[in-house]
Specification:
Helix content is about 20%, strand content about 30%. The protein is of the alpha+beta class. The chain is globular.
């Protein structure tokens, strides 16, 4: 009987995943979204177009569809698209229209989360930094300058989608749009202006006339007709429900793992836990669940927010490279098929629930024609339990839900995983260990006299750099007016990293962390009797992506002094400082082929001071189609470019509490590569060894038994 149900489920799932051709009327009621008069029970997966490449999109979407996903959900990334007011970029990885059309071509629906504030562990929460300089602006509140720019961009995106016929009301795949993002987290900080902003944003969006419903996630006061939705790992337990009986229960972010920060351990969420909470949400009348992320991808360039690593949600059903992560992908695929087989009673039937044990509950859906489905919930994590349901006994595994599509046969248990796990294999293709294949360029350390920007106080970093660079040099010169014994340089910073140099010599580096605001350092130094040049490089590792009043946040140095033994202290907080935005190599863009000759490259030397050194070499692409990654474990902190494309920041020297780097492998998409002669540029901020960088291919090994899985060596 179980096999029969399984094949029925597969057929139903395949049919349900196809978006219909022609114009679709999308409405909703208190049970579900309704498309062309038919209730829909939908599974969705987040795939963000700029976190992969156009060459990867077809495969990612196809694997999501094969996994039983009906909808692809994506944010729209304002700061990628509107580089300056009214100046737009929708090319390459930023081609939103192409991405939506690929979703349509594969017969799936789309949910477009315009925001345009998105958070998403994305730099500045997706807001373009030029907003910071708009006079009188306050982000995300009832502020006219912000509302004007927000409305302009939202309108731009909606018009673009309409012009391409991409809303379901036009025959396109977009069935939902989102305005704002988790605003309730900050709403109270703006008092009555926050509530006014919510009403304005909802009306502004609805008035754009997309012909499809709008949603606000984590927004219990979402004004009609906007639907309030849930984000989190356990919305079946935490969601208070729609704020109107006429709105359906939608889950816009079911976190399949969690984002990782430098110095933080990866969060591993099991397939069993995800399946349990998906089934529970459905049992409690949920009808739309989106996996955040289904494929996380890569934070290329400088796009990640503060301290967030370059790889994004690598533990999702599709890993950073787009490979299946088993058993998560397969277990959820089975769950989707089973639930879709119950869609008639789930969407048309009457729900009842009752106790079947001390920690056990039954949720039953019965429809007039006799169709019936049941979810038997065991909330006891201590062991198996046997429950009685409709004169039959059913054994439930610990912390699990058994699904009975006909109220008689249990065909799926969320804690019973039949999909075998796989393991990811890293195969070394090349080690860059030939000294003569590398050239290096060392950054000059600027002194006060080298700077053109000067001030009598410490400048805030973000406002000074305008976020065109992670780097800002703070410099000053001074001569002690008396002998300074055992001098100590004291620095306090609200940036992320600081490197100190005395008379152009590197002294020490220090950094903060994602969970602490600011850091300080006390560094013993040596001073000349005459004039001394102090240069401090303040570094940001992405900008904050959330919180109220982002426009007024402070970053950079906020206190500097030199303490001598005894009571003598030189305070430089209010002093004449010189500033340089960015590194010389950045300003000259020496990661581009045509700019390599703008600096003098030399042979690698064996000096111990290798801070702020650029390295260059070339390599051939590995044979085959497997994904490619650079192993940067021999380096410490910096950035990498391949053929002028930034593959992101690396920070190998920032270890987790268990003593491991947060990330060592850095994805190089195949589309970035030529067959031969690929240019590799590495900027090392500290003292890494480029001779141990390796080029690798990534694949997965699949298994037919746990024994073979447990005995495979040298896998990650």
């Amino acid at each position: 009987m179980k096999a029969v149900w399984w094949w029925i489920c597969i057929a139903v799932a395949a049919q349900a995943s196809m978006a219909t051709a022609g114009e679709d009327n999308v409405t909703y009621d208190g049970r579900s979204l309704i498309i062309n008069g038919q209730r829909k029970l939908l599974f969705s997966g987040s795939i963000h177009y700029p976190r992969s490449t156009p060459q990867m999109w077809p495969s990612l979407i196809a694997k999501a569809k094969e996994g039983g996903v009906d909808v692809i959900q994506t944010y729209v990334f304002w700061n990628l698209h509107e580089l300056q007011p009214g100046q737009y970029d929708f090319n390459g990885r930023y081609d939103l229209v192409k991405f939506i059309k690929e979703i349509q071509a594969q017969g799936l629906y789309a949910c477009l989360r315009i925001g345009p504030f998105i958070e998403s562990e994305w730099n500045y929460g997706g807001l373009p930094f030029w907003l910071h300089d708009v006079p009188g602006i306050v982000y995300r509140t009832n502020n006219e300058p912000f509302k004007m720019y927000m409305q302009n961009f939202t309108t731009k995106i909606v018009k673009m989608m309409k012009s391409e016929g991409l809303y379901a009301s036009q025959g396109g795949p977009i069935i939902l749009s989102q305005i704002e993002n988790e605003y309730q987290n900050v709403e109270a900080a703006f008092h009555e202006e926050g509530a006014a902003y919510v009403k304005w944003a909802a009306k502004m969006a609805v008035d754009l006339g997309t012909g499809v419903p709008w949603i606000m996630c984590k927004q219990t006061d979402a004004p009609d007709p906007v639907i309030n939705t849930c984000n989190g790992m356990r919305c079946g337990e935490t969601f208070g429900g729609p704020n109107s009986p006429n709105k359906p229960s939608l889950w816009t972010e079911d976190w399949t793992s969690f984002y990782q920060v430098y110095g933080g351990e990866p969060y591993i969420r099991s397939a069993e836990d995800i399946a349990f909470h998906v089934a529970l949400f459905i049992a409690k009348n949920g009808s739309y669940i989106n996996y955040y992320m289904y494929h996380g991808g890569t934070n290329f360039g400088r796009t990640s927010s503060a301290y967030v690593i370059t790889g994004y949600y690598d533990q999702a059903p599709l890993d950073e490279y787009g490979l299946l992560r088993q058993p998560k992908w397969g277990h959820l695929k089975e769950l989707h098929a089973v639930i879709k087989n119950c869609s008639t009673p789930l969407l048309q039937g009457v729900q009842s629930n009752f106790s079947i044990g001390p920690l056990q509950q039954a949720y039953v859906f019965e429809e007039g024609s006799g169709a019936c489905a049941a979810f038997l919930v065991n909330n006891d994590s201590r062991g198996n339990v046997t429950v009685q349901f409709r004169d039959n006994s059913f054994e439930l595994l610990p912390k699990s839900i058994g699904i009975l599509p006909d109220c008689q046969n249990m065909v799926f248990n969320t804690a019973k995983v039949s999909t075998m796990p796989n393991k990811r294999i890293t195969t070394v293709d090349k080690v860059f260990d030939a000294v003569d294949s590398w050239k290096e360029f060392k950054e000059d350390i600027p002194s006060f006299l080298d700077t053109s920007l000067q001030s009598n106080s410490l400048l805030e970093q973000m406002n000074t750099t305008k976020d065109v660079s992670d780097y800002l040099w703070y410099t000053f010169s001074f001569q002690p007016n008396s002998t300074c014994f055992e001098p100590v340089l004291h620095i306090e910073s609200l940036g992320h990293v600081a490197h100190s140099y005395i008379n152009s010599k590197f002294v020490e580096a220090e950094h903060g962390s994602h969970d602490t605001k600011g850091f300080s350092m006390d560094v013993p130094i040596s001073l000349n009797d005459g004039m001394n040049n102090v240069s401090i490089l303040s570094i940001m590792v992405g900008l904050q992506d959330s919180g109220a009043y982002l426009e007024s946040k402070y970053a950079g140095l906020n206190k500097v002094n030199i303490q001598c033994s005894g009571s003598n202290t030189y305070d430089f907080t209010n002093y004449t400082w010189g500033y340089q935005v960015a590194l010389k190599g950045e300003m000259l863009q020496i990661y581009k082929e045509q700019n390599l000759d703008k600096v003098e490259w030399t042979e690698i030397d064996d000096s111990t001071n290798k801070s702020l050194t650029w390295y260059k070499t070339t390599f051939d692409a590995p044979v085959g189609d497997d994904p490619v990654a650079l192993n940067m474990s021999s380096m410490q902190k910096g950035q990498v470019w391949v053929n002028e494309q930034s593959i992101g920041r690396y920070w190998v020297s920032f270890h987790t509490p268990k003593g491991n780097p947060s990330q060592t492998l850095y994805h190089v998409p195949r589309s970035f590569l030529e067959p031969s002669g690929n240019l590799l540029i590495v900027l090392e901020e500290l003292n890494g060894d480029p001779l141990q960088i390796s080029l690798n291919t990534i694949s997965v090994a699949n298994f037919t038994s746990l024994n073979s899985y447990n005995h495979l060596p040298l896998l990650i």
